[in-house]
Amino acid sequence: MSKNFRVLASVALAASLAATSACSNTRDEEASSGSSSNLIGIAMPQKSLERWNKDGSHLDEILKKAGYETSLQHADSVEQQITQIQNMINQNPKVLVVASIDGTALAPALEKAAEKKVKVIAYDRLINSTPNVDFYATFDNYLVGKLQGQFIEEKLGLKDGKGPFNLEAFAGSADDNNAKFFFSGAWDVLKPYIDSGKLVVPSGKKPATNEEWTTVSVQGWKTETAQSEMDNRLNSFYTGGKKVNVVLSPNDSLALGIAQSLESKGYKPGADYPIITGQDADLANTKNVLADKQSMTVWKDTRTLGDQVLKMVDAIVKGGTVETNDTKTYNNGVKVVPSYLLPPVVVTKDDVKTKLVDSGFYTADKLGL
Ligand code: GAL
After folding, report:
1. Is 153's C-beta closer than 6 angstroms to any atom of ligand 1?
2. What's the gap between Cα 302 and its chain centre?
3. Are 337 and 126 in contact (CB under 8 A)?
4. What is the per-residue burial (b if ≥16 Cβ within 10 Å, else e) of 312-338?
5. pLDDT tens-digit readout, 296-336
6. Could you tell me if the CB of 173 is within 6 A of ligand 1?
7. What is the pLDDT of residue 156?
8. Which InterPro entries does the record associate with it (predicted)?
9. Which residue spans within the chain are E strands per DSSP?
10. Mean pLDDT on 17-45
11. Are the C-beta atoms of 202 and 241 separated by less than 8 Å?
12. Is 216 in the pocket of ligand 1 (CB under 6 A)?
């Protein structure tokens, strides 16, 4: 991802966060959709990835509370999600909220939505290659990665010239538009240290540019795939007492597999245990952070995302103007989709209580605190 892009992304975000604007685009003239029903379709990815359960149930609950009918569906495959979306469209919803499994696979299905004047909000993950997506609500995905990269930089003292350290890097699912933003945010911080030799990658799996991020991607964000990949790297490149010092994991489902692999190779929390990053504050991972088996997680309060989407739905249904704070960053290949970006937050062992428990995201009991 070019330097200009990064500068553009952060300037755009700073400017737009400062001046939240009411957005209008060509499909906005008819702010309210053609359908007479009060139905909101909610299409979510697989339940096996913990956060989507939280996202789905929270959004469903607050929409119902606001007086809408809802249809909430989770899918385990792209094909299943396409069928679910087609069925929802046939029920003439006012708005379709879609967290896509593969953002490049929905264009044909959304043509039907356009014909029926159903408004489409991309949820967390951008929908690509179609004009038929009206708004995008997500967290600042590039900043998620940047926070992971900066955490590593600070923990290792890289700015003070410390090193060399052994790094292994992972990226998210190749079909997930967010994954390249996560990777680019982190790699823009870490790559200069790889170039200077302060970070060494014994497996050699170090993308030369951000565009090559899929060379370290883990399909479907699968824990077991990350675990076996880490096993292979440790077996092949960490012999004769060589230790891994830091693992860039883009999210918690991968971090869990990576921690399980390290444990199976005899790594124990303490001096020799590597820094491991994460994202989502999944329950098992938050417990791992408390147990020093993971160093941090980038928390995205999914409740705030749901709340923002409810505001968007209300504005669309009531013919109002939809609040956005970024109208530059997210080009889906056909158009720049007006977006609302929410801030991600770093959580470490020291602030699990203040950030996750005091905010009600978890009870102390659930975390064993
Ligand atoms: C991303 C999402 C992350 C993480 C990952 C795996 O798109 O933004 O929060 O959950 O998918 O589900």
Report:
1. no
2. 11
3. yes
4. bbbbbbeeeebbbbbbebbebeeeebb
5. 999 999 999 999 999 999 999 999 999 999 999 999 999 99
6. no
7. 98
8. Bact_Solute-Bind_Prot2, ChvE-like, Peripla_BP_I, SBP_2_dom
9. 21-23, 39-44, 69-74, 95-98, 119-123, 135-139, 165-169, 199-200, 246-248, 275-276, 297-299, 322-324, 339-342, 345-347
10. 62
11. no
12. no
Q: Which range has the worst mean pLDDT, 37-41, 294-298, 346-350, 359-363?
A: 37-41
Round to whole Å and give the CA distance between 316 and 322.
7
Q: Which residue owns the Cα nearest ligand 1 atom 12?
A: 49
Does the Cβ of 102 fall within 6 Å of ligand 1?
A: no
Q: Candidates 251, 303, 330, 341: which one to mutate for ligand 1, based on the most atoms within 8 Å of Cβ?
A: 251
Q: Is 221 in the pocket of ligand 1 (CB under 6 A)?
A: yes
pLDDT band at 2 (very low <50, low <70, confident <90, very high): very low
3-state secondary structure of 124: coil
Distance of CA 156 to the CA centre of its chain: 25
| pLDDT tens by residue, 211-243 | 999 999 999 999 999 999 999 999 999 999 999
Contact criterion met (CB below 8 Å) for 248 and 255: no
Q: In angstroms, what is the span from residue 163 Cα to ligand 1's centroid? A: 31
| Cβ(97)–Cβ(119) below 8 Å | no
Atom of ligand 1 nearest to the CA of 49: 12
Q: What is the number of the ligand 1 atom nearest to the C-alpha of 221?
A: 6
Q: In residues, how long is the chain?
A: 369
